[in-house]
Amino acid sequence: MVTVLTHYIDGTRTEGASRRFGDVFDPCTGQVTSRVPLATPAEVGESVANAEKGHAEWSAMNPQRRGRILLKFVGLVNEHLDELAELLSSEHGKTFADAKGDIQRGLEVVEFSAGAAPHLLKGEFSDNVGTGIDVHSLRKSLGVVAGISPFNFPAMIPLWQAGPALAAGNAFILKPSERNPSVPLRLAELLTEAGLPNGVFNVINGDKEAVDALLEDARVKAVGFVGSTPIAQSIYATAAAQGKRAQCFGGAKNHMVILPDADLDMAADALIGAAYGSAGERCMAISVAVPVGEKTADALVAKLTERINKLTVGHSLDKNSDFGPVIAASAKERIESYISAGKDSGATLVVDGRGPNVEGYEGGFWVGPTLFDHVAPDMSIYTEEIFGPVLSVVRAGDYDEALRLCNEHEFGNGVAIFTRDGDAARDFSSRVEVGMVGINVPLPVPIAYYTFGGWKASAFGDLNQHGPDAFRFYTKTKTVTSRWPSGIRGGASFVMPAGS
Ligand code: NAD
User: Fold this and answer.
1) Which residues share a beta bridge with 215?
2) Could you tell me which residues are beta bridge partners of residue 483?
3) Which of 91, 102, 152 best tests ligand 1's pocket when mutated (most atoms within 8 Å of CB)?
4) Is 136 inside any structural domain?
5) For the CA of 148, the nearest atom of ligand 1
6) What is the pLDDT of residue 485?
7) Is residue 229 a contact partner of residue 235, using CB atoms and an 8 Å limit?
8) What's the 478 CA to ligand 1 centre distance in angstroms?
9) Of the candidates 89, 286, 417, 455, which lies 20 to 30 Å from 446 by C-alpha distance?
10) Best residue for ligand 1 mutational test, from 226, 385, 436 (most atoms within 8 Å of Cβ)
11) 235 in the same domain as 259
């Protein structure tokens, strides 16, 4: 049965009024499971007006009390973890265990934000900057802020955006991916159950029309975006032109450099998880392996091939599946066309993942693990983000060439180096032009109290997600200079007034 989804406004599920809908699929079957309403600008306007009311109440509450509500929400999400993970898997296609990780990494940022807010919202104070003059600063919430999130982390990214924004006293409007909106709607319900005042967290479902309405609305003071680079760049430009703050995170092409002294079994195991986990649909996935030296490359490709042949692509709720389907039929077609292009351009297709047979689920959006060797830097499989289970091996002659490849690539989200040599690792982490670096760690996603963000075409804006940066992004500073030229000290009466 196909269900009809809603928005979430003023603490309740709200039917869409636009009569425009998007189809939500179960990627394992290829069947439409629900229809998501695509909001009109008028509906977006209503949710903003509602959020403004919510902000008045929420920002007046002290940060410890806000934090307690957020921590109660964390408890509720944990109580409903299995239900949420299953729902997430059913619309995304990632495995149940991976879906739990998606939620867990989001909750870590909410926990951090709840605890850190009173500290990170503290201002500064200087005594006697001039005779009798003091200066202090305050961090005030912005008001109504919006988050626009991608399909690949339906829980984690909305929570990365909303956690610090709410803890700092803002009201938040989430425009989740129209491909998997059910988990965000459920999270909104749990926030209300935890005691969040109505209107403080609204979910508005939609497509470009809803996003444009949010960007054009002067009452929306900041926009956090995560998605593909062309949209990130265009949202950054539009938001800036409207005088809004924006932090916009885009695509990636993450490299892993493997030096000849690395533990190759460890590197191969790490690569398998980082390249094919979640069907390669992670912005921190490794899609390029750069072994240094022919001997390293030959041995690595042999070890990867052996491991790939043991991988199982299957239903996301089947415990034996290493990874599930990709998000959509169009994604499957796009990934397959990259595989054809790679082959046509002369790369060696070591393992071809096109057309895997997943018995009983023939209609699903399946792409198996794919491995290319002898990939050259001018091939489209190297220059462009494929966002699927496709790993390209680019052989480097020496360390400098490997470093240059990482630095010259358009994207700079994540990178990793595998080596036993501390000096090489240190030089690499210092000189590589990438925002997040792993040393013998394939997916260096920073923990909640550090910040997350790439460089170059992977991010637009100057402040990262979560950690202290998020509190700077979601607050504005007010600086107060004060002097009290005459008080009651001189003229005050210290004698008990007595009747005449
Ligand atoms: P996407 O850019 O297609 O969509 C992201 C969001 O933007 C969605 O909510 C979508 O509805 C909206 N959107 C789409 N087209 C729009 C338009 N023309 N105008 C306004 N809004 C529009 O991205 P996706 O396919 O959902 O997600 C995958 C991409 O996200 C990959 O490129 C991946 O690397 C990237 N990503 C980056 C990070 C990061 O932190 N850098 C994290 C996760 C995903």
Assistant:
1) none
2) 133
3) 152
4) yes
5) 9
6) 82
7) no
8) 33
9) 89
10) 226
11) no
How far apart are alpha carbons 263 and 259 in whole angstroms? 9
Query: What is the whole-number distance in angstroms between the Cα of residue 176 and the centre of ligand 1?
Result: 10
Of 345, 348, 435, 456, residue with least CA distance to 395: 348
* Residues 347 and 206 placed together within one structural domain of the fold: no
- Supply the DSSP string of 123-161, one letter for each residue: --EEEEEETTEEEEEEEEE-SEEEEE--SS-TTHHHHHH
Return the ligand 1 atom nearest residue 252 CA.
Answer: 34
Q: Which of 177, 254, 413, 434 should be mutated for ligand 1, with most atoms under 8 A from CB? A: 177
Angstrom distance (rounded) from CA 474 to CA 121: 10
Ligand 1 mean position to 208 CA, how many Å?
11
* Residues contacting ligand 1 via CB (< 6 Å): 148-153, 175, 177-178, 207-208, 211, 226-228, 231, 249-252, 283, 385, 387, 413, 454, 458
Do 337 and 359 reside in the same domain of the chain? yes
Number of separate domains in the chain: 2
**What's the CATH number where 205 sits?**
3.40.605.10
Q: Which numbered atom of ligand 1 lies nearest the CA of 175?
A: 9
- Mark the ranges of the chain whose per-residue pLDDT is less than 70: 490-492, 499-500
Count of all residues that appear for the chain in the document: 500
Residues 269 and 150 in one domain: no
Q: Which atom of ligand 1 is nearest to the CA of 459?
A: 41
Residue 177 CA to ligand 1 center (angstroms) comes to 8
Q: What pLDDT is stored for residue 487 in this prediction?
A: 72
242 part of a folded domain: yes
Q: Give which of 413, 414, 415 is closest to 402, Cα–Cα.
A: 415
| Catalytic center residues | 283
Q: Whose CA is nearest to atom 19 of ligand 1?
A: 208
What pLDDT is attached to residue 498? 76
- For ligand 1, what atom is nearest to the CA of residue 452? 40
Domain coverage including residue 434: 254-439
Does residue 446 sit within a domain? Answer: no
pLDDT, position 497: 72
Task: Spell out the residues 6+ positions from residue 323 whose beta carbon is closer than 8 angstroms to its own.
Answer: 94, 95, 98, 276, 277, 278, 279, 311, 313, 389
Residues 418 and 470 in one domain: no
- State whether 237 and 268 are in the same domain: no
Say if residue 269 is in the same domain as residue 191.
no
User: Distance, CA 249 to ligand 1 centroid (Å)?
Assistant: 9
Q: How far is the CA of 150 from the centre of ligand 1 (A)?
A: 4
Q: Which tens digit of pLDDT belongs to each residue from 271-280?
A: 999 999 999 9
Q: What is the DSSP letter of 287?
A: E
Q: Is the ipTM of this complex over 0.90?
A: yes
Q: What was the pLDDT predicted at 500?
A: 57
Counting beta carbons within 10 angstroms of the beta carbon of residue 257, is it exposed (0 to 12), middle (13 to 18) or buried (19 or more)? buried
**Are 208 and 336 contained in the same domain?**
no
Q: Rounded distance, CA 33 to CA 322, Å?
A: 24
> What confidence score (pLDDT) does residue 262 get?
98
